[in-house]
Amino acid sequence: MFIVIALIVLGFLIFVHELGHFVVAKLSGMAVDEFSLGFGPAIISKQWGETRYSLRLLPLGGYNKIAGMEPNDDRPDGFDKKPLTARIGVILAGSLSNFLIAALLFIFTLSFIGQATPSNANMIGEVLRNSPAEQIGLQAGDRIVQIDGVRTAAWDDVASAIHAKGQQQMTVTVERNKQLQDFKVVPRYDQDLKISQIGISPAIVWERQGFLPAVNVGLKSAIDFARLIIVSLYQLITGQVAMQNLSGPVGVMQQIGDSAHSGLGTLLMFTGMLGINLAILNLLPFPALDGSRIIFLLLEGMRGKPLNPEKEGMIHLVGFALLMGLVLLITYNDIMRLFTGG
Q: How would you write the pLDDT of the chain (342 residues) with one tens digit per residue?
């Protein structure tokens, strides 16, 4: 079921991205021969006006076949015949659409579902994978009523007691199905946070926002998350973040599944964050990505003439091959994490 949800989420984000290119191309007077969601053999294909609309077998992708973007296509309503600003607008539109839909998802979630806020109740909301808590059998929904015989009426009491124990064994008393059970656990010291933890987090409550506060928080969240991605990319390039920390298709699908398991609000917020991620990555100045196409258009503006289409096509082809190699490497890391529990 989670695989189906993941495919729907990814297909939706790709559709939004390609729809952005499509709409601006049409508004700019460019002929679009085909608007396709997915790659491979067509499942459904329908000609409507000058454009064929297709749904293809492999959902992880999509494209617009815009006139004038391929060599020897010399139509007057082609991409290459339009002003430079219109062409840059078409390329930018995909990422801008992803950013816009992310902000709208944030605003919708905040308005109709709410803002996720950690509860101060003494109930476990989530047990982290491969944590001491998971290893001893603690479960989401357990209510921690005592630690080493001391009453814990709120989450603050639970957290303080765990942090105070250091790495000494303690007895956690939980209420489960109206029965009390004792679990012995040794906290694990977190080198980054400098505290001892057993791998649990509090329950989440959703507090609905008014429309105007939701717009304010939603737009701010979208901008803040975009800034976070840019900082993370800088850290990756400078070696401050290891390549092993990146997630590929397998890791992303697993994260979508985890978000869906946590509820609709979490899934919608994660979909928005994934959309912003897609928007920024597509604007990187790397061959085969939208960012590199913008660079080539800017170079054309400075030179007063376009680059050789065949040479540009070769650069994008090589870039695409390198990207596929990187995706395979990251996918390998994803699979290894699944097997090793990392």
A: 778 888 888 889 989 999 999 999 999 999 999 999 887 888 999 999 899 999 988 777 788 999 988 777 788 999 989 999 999 999 999 999 999 999 999 999 999 999 988 899 999 999 998 899 999 999 999 999 999 999 999 999 999 999 988 889 999 999 999 999 999 999 998 887 788 899 999 998 898 999 999 999 999 999 999 999 888 888 877 777 666 666 666 667 777 877 887 789 999 999 999 999 999 989 988 888 899 999 989 998 898 888 777 777 778 778 778 777 766 666 666 566 655 555
The residues pairing with 204 across neighbouring beta strands, listed in sequence order, are 118
Q: Where are the domains of the chain?
A: 2-113+249-340, 120-202
The catalytic residue among 18, 134, 207, 312 is 18
Picking from 68, 71, 33, the residue whose alpha carbon sits closest to that of residue 54 is 33
Residue 153 to residues 138, 156, 273, Cα–Cα distance (Å): 18, 8, 35
- Cα-based torsion angle of the residue sequence 73, 75, 78, 84 in order, rounded to the nearest 10 degrees: 100
Give the CATH number of domain 120-202: 2.30.42.10
Output DSSP code: residue 187: -
CA distance 274 to 60: 14
Q: Give 53's strand partners.
A: 35, 46
In degrees, rounded to 5, the angle at the alpha carbon of residue 118 between the alpha carbons of residues 117 and 124 is: 145
**Which DSSP string do the residues of 73-135 spell out, in sequence order?**
---TTSGGGS-HHHHHHHHHHHHHHHHHHHHHHHHHHHHHT-EEEE--BSBEEEE-TTSHHHH
For residues 23 and 90, give the distance between their C-alpha atoms in angstroms, rounded to a whole number: 8
Q: Is 18 a catalytic residue?
A: yes
Q: Helix, strand or coil for residue 31?
A: coil
